[in-house]
Design goal:
Elements lengths: L15 E2 L21 H10 L2 E12 L12 E15 L4 E2 L1 E9 L13 E9 L2 E7 L5 E3 L2 H15 L7 E11 L6 E9 L5 E7 L6 E6 L15 H9 L14 H18 L4
Antiparallel strand pairs: 1-4, 2-3, 2-6, 3-5, 6-7, 6-8, 9-10, 10-11, 11-12
Length: 278
Amino acid sequence: MIRVPVIAFCCAASLTVPSVSLGNPLQNAASTISVLPSYSTTARQVLAAPLIIDARIRSAVRIKGEEAVNVPPGRMRFYVEVDVLALIRGADSVPLRLGYVADVALDARGKAPRLKKDRVLLFARPVASRRDQVQLVDPDGQRFWSAELDAFVRGITREVLAADAPPAVTGVGNAFHVPGSLPGEGETQIFLQTANNAPVSLQILRRPGEQPRWSVSLGDIVDESGGAARPGTLLWYRLACGLPRDLPATSIDSGDAASAVIAREDYQFVLQSLGPCQ
């Protein structure tokens, strides 16, 4: 029986690789996969992973017995060694060879895919005191490489690392609706709470005979010209996946019941426009 600790250990080369591609241009069969994970799933993995690595599997040994008793149904546990081709995200260089534990999804026949020589993208975190080991951030932290997935991941990584990247939304602060001079006219402003206390606000405009319009502002100045968050962007992800499903009662000025009702309706309008987090 192969004994592998939770953090997974094995010897690895001490050489390091910079953040440039050193990979074999040949692609494996998995690279023809064209179905991409959702933006939400990929953004969550990118945000959780201090290391994003392009690698080729050198070996994969199945782990059995007591080290595999907690493997989820439909998966099989392997200790995997890879040769690093490129470091897509990471503050430092990494060894040319890395090891980790992966719970690999089985195919429709209940068989594990052939892993050796496959090219993969890893969403991982380093293991303390073991530079030759990484830990996947979630069960799908090992994904089969494709040119489309590689470009998709790199694009989201650039968004996440940008100096003006939108912050994580942690809640809703104050919200209020101001009626206009005409029936059916008015504006709702909703101020959001964020992980780094950066100001983010929502504005919903109502005009008689028109559909409501909403916009999001990043910064102290409320700017309606920015428009709504575009799907498939980090700003959209922060809102769609960070906003609570209902406007908290503590956020609304209860002194004007009619305005409070409109503020709640406008908040739901924003959620419906954003769509599900997936």
